[in-house]
Every structure is written in structure tokens, then in C-alpha cells.
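Lab meeting, action items carried over

1. Structure of the two-component assembly. Owner: GW. Status: complete.
Input record:
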Amino acid sequence: MSHLVEINDLQLEFVSDSGPIRVLDGVSLSIRAGESLCLVGESGSGKSVTALSLARLIPTPPARYTKGSICINGSNVLKMSSGELRAIRGGVISYIFQEPGASLNPVFRVGRQIKESLKLHRPEAANDAEVIRLLKLVGIPAPEQRLHNYPFELSGGMQQRVMIAMALASQPKLLVADEPTTALDVTIQAQILDLLRDLKQQLGMSILLITHNLSIIGDLADRVAVMYAGQVVEEASARDLLKRPFHPYTRALMHSIPQLSGGSERLPAISGTVPAPGQFPSGCRFYPRCPSARPECEKTAPDLMEIEANRWVRCAYARELIEEEYS
Amino acid sequence: MSVEDVSNPQGTGLQQSSTLLRVAGLKVHFPVKKGLFSAVKAHVKAVDGVSFTIEPGETLGLVGESGCGKSTLGRAIVKLVRPTAGTIQFEENDVSLLAGGQMKAVRRGMQMIFQDPVNSLNPRMTVEEIIGEALDIHRLAGSAQARRNRVRELLKAVGLNEAHAERYPHEFSGGQRQRVGIARALAVEPKLIICDEPVSALDVSVQAQIINLLQDLQRDRSLAYLFIAHDLAVVKHISRRIMVMYLGKIVELAPAQIVIERPLHPYTQALISAVPEVDPESKRQRILLSGDVPSPINPPSGCPFHPRCPVAEARCKVERPALREISPGHWAACHLA
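Predicted assembly:
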């Protein structure tokens, strides 16, 4: 299977008064056709800028790509003209975001907003029938009436469905979902995740899911990349990662989340706070908070290494730690 | 509905006399008007006949989806919103009857911490001023030196250090700001803290720190919490009992473990089944609820949950189920429970 997206050694800096701030440092990721990849990380880890970079949605300046490449179907997005980029945006990659209410235009009916996307990408299909088909596809009841609604007349879950319908109007190869369920209630979150999984199967498209919530990745992701401080620290299949997390950060993160099936004993919290971009520690970026840190971790920055087949970890002592933990 | 016909779920196995907070038949209705001067068209029944108790040193968890009235309930208890009906008895006082100086005295006993520490801390005040203000209002610091010492003592108690006293809120991370909010609440030595989504705005790795801090403080100072959150796993972790709200009403109330393991109300069952689990092996049967929470302006007849309920019967449409004690300490409002 060929790679739809291939990010290679990407480095991104933002220009600020106090000099450049590096927010991505050597990020390499790939997504195959029909595959779903989940980027997990806390605020400031670089997961959203990575996702936005795919369609060059980060304005340059103030941002600057100082190294690396992003290839979509083999051509480098960083070298594209604005015309070529316009074809990629929507045509190949569509986005949905956390707050559907903020992404929809409040003064136009939702049917018209979906039609706008159709006019741009598939003018021959820009009619009510196609809008209704799309609304049906995303599970909106009574779509014939709903298309005349304004966004404020819809609930958060319905608004997110409209956003998904709009994103699908252009028949993209990749749907980027940036925290699509964070603003929604758990019962609605379960509905939206189910919908995304169905759509992936039905339409055979790839999904890049961005989330801070480790618990939802098992529902949707084939593979997972965990980001911390502008780097990928672990990459594996969703199943492997959830069953046997290798990187100390992934492990600590998973243990610090209360589980319904767990007791009420004290949570093993990670000490300290997520470092802000520009204040990433030297050496291993997680070492100041790492429960298994050693003196050498402060000095040498570890590389992302393939520990087992298709399992990548950025930790110099990964092998020893895994043996301790899982033997 | 009068206060008399509201059932009054008690805490488990505790003396009635020791009860810290006793809420009975509480209603908060907001008028809905069309246009600025026109008459009231309807009421949003944000909280509609809620009764419960909190014992000293206990954590009562309160869960529900957005719009179910859980935050309004929290605010009504400290009278940040005015209750429409019902009584709120805190220790010996009926809070709903108090005003002015008397209310101020009672407020010392109950404090609140909020979801968003950015918006609940004054950006133009240093941490010392923010925490000190609480001491000044209740005249708890005799001298400037005593005030200074007390602020530093509180900062230490919440895991910050003395140097942080001089700083402004923007100089802190989200987790540290929440610690400042907690220190402010602790300043007046309350017996009850209403925690309104205290960890949901925080990074995952910081959430656990704040949860641990709240538990440590509870142990050391025998605080009681009303812990409001939408994350069931967090609520279960921290609470002794859990109360589930739907459309302004309590639908289930029981010890935490029992609510999660043997939920009686179909809404609670659906809510629990929707919680995603990290463990990929866990194959919990998911009950997908169709549709959204109905509007609290015009709630469904009978059982408010019946339009979304997978097991609803004919009588659920007409008859409103009362909150009944199904087994000792386990209350549910469902005909079929």
C-alpha cells in the first residue's frame, strides 16, 4: 500500500521578538490510504501544528519550515504554488475542528454552507439533493428540514455532523479531525466516534485524529503517534501501544488517568508541567519529569528507534525499561 | 410540587444531626422573555426539585451532560444564583433565608473553585492580593505580617512556594493557576468546597496532580466536596457517593462503586457505557443514546428521559417517576428500576 502522506524530519519555527521558537523538531510520520493515525499529546506538544502543516495552513511568516518535507501523494507541499495548494485543501485534505459552533458561519443556513463546499470542489453536484445525501450520510435526521436551519438551531453534536458533511462534500482522501469530540458530552462523543469509524470504512478514506484523550484512540485509530515537546516519542499500532506502552511518558500518562474500572487509590501523577515551546529541556525532553530518568538523559537527546517491528520509541533506555516492566 | 412530597435521600449510615449540607426541593427556574420588555414566555427549569445531603468530610460527585443543571445547582448552594424554591440548610442555618452579614458568615463555611482558572483569577492582582482579599473580607488576618504568613502557608499547602506570592496569574501554568484558586478557597477555612469541573480545563498529566491535591487536602482538613464534573471516571475516583442529574432532576444517587458497577437508571447505564476505556481488551457493551438532551424549557412529559430511553414503556410517557430508595442508600428515579 502506498503512502498518502509522508512527513519527513519536519522542523518548524515561529519567529518571535526573543528569537525563533522551535515548535516541531524532527517529526516524521506517514499515513497510508484508508488508514487512521492518531496523534496524541498535551497542549504545546505540536500535534495541531503538525496537522495544520499538511495543507500549509500555518501562515509563513511568522512560521518558518527550516528542515524536512511533507509529501502528499508524492509531491512536497512545502514547495507548492498557491494554486497547487488550493487543489490540496479540501480536494485531498479536509479538516474538522474542536468547536463546530466557531467553525460554522452563523449567518448562513447550513445547507448553503455545505453547497458552498460543493460549488468549489464538485460544481456539477452543487444541488439540494446532494446536500441531503451528505446530511443523511453523517446521520442527521430529517435532512430535508435541517438544511434550512441556522447553525445556532442545532446542538453541538449536530453541528459537528454538519462540519463532517461539509468536509466530506469535496470527497477528500484524508480527513483531519482536530479534537473533534473534546467540546462534546460523552454520549455525543460516542456517537461522533462511531460515525467517523463508519465513514472511514464506507468511504475508504484516511483519518488523522488529533486528541489529548488517550481513552478514545482505541475506538478509531489503527496506529498512534505520541507527541511530547515538539517530537514524536512513540509510534505503534493502537493495540500494541494501549496494551504495552513503551515510552516512560506514554506509560506515565496512561497510569495517571482515572479509570472507571479502577479503585480510588492515589493516582501516580506526573510531576511538573508540560514545557512551553522555546523552553524545551536539552537532552531528552521528558527527563525532568521522567520517573525512570538517569543522569545521562540530561545530556544526550535520544533518537526515535525501532525497538520491535513497527514500534518506535524515543528513549535511550527503552529496552531495559521494557524488560523491567514487562518481563 | 411542595417540599413535602419531595423524597429526601440521606447519606449512608450517618447520623442526621451531623449532616453538613441538606438541600431539599431546590428549584432554580430562569424566566425566558421574548424581547426586552415583553412578558415572561416560559421558564428554563435548570434545577427542578433536587434534594440531597452532604456529610462532613464526604465527597459527593455530581455528573450529567451539559445543560443538565449541575453547575446551576452548585452555584445555587452558595447563592451565586437565587433559588426559586426549596431550602438549603448548611449546618444550622437555612441559607435560602439569609442575606447580608449573616450570609457572609455562612459563606466562610462554603467556598467554590471553578473550571477555568484563567477567568476566575483577577489578572491585575498578584497571588498575594488574590488570596489576601479573602482573608481581608472575613477579617481573618490581624496584622499585615499575619496576612503575609498566612498567604505563604496556604501556597505551601497547595504545592506552590513563597516566591509565587508576588506573581500575577498570567505567569503561571494552568495547573498552578488552579492551585492558586484552591488556595483562595482554603484561605477562609471552609467546611465545604463546591468544585465545578476543577480539572477539565487542565492537561491530562496535570489533572492527576490536582486530583491528588484535592484528596490530600480533604484528608488533612476534613473538607467536604461537591465535585461537579462530566468525566465519570474522575468523579468515580474522587467521590464517596455519586449523584446523576438529567434535565434538572436527580435520576440516580448511590455509593460511587455501586453507581458504576450496578447502575439502575437507563440513563446512568448509557452514560457509563459511553465512557471510553484505555484498555483495548475491555469489551463493554455500548448503549448508544439517540438524539440530544431535550430543552429544559419544555421538558418531555412523564419521565424526562423517555424519548431517549432504550427500555421506555407506555407509562413512562405519562407518569413522572419519583426518586425512590430501591435498596439501602441506592436511589433511582425510574419506573422499571
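2. GW to write a short summary for the group page. Key points so far: The two ends of chain A are 35 Å apart (CA to CA). The CA atoms of residues 138 and 161 of chain A lie 6 Å apart.
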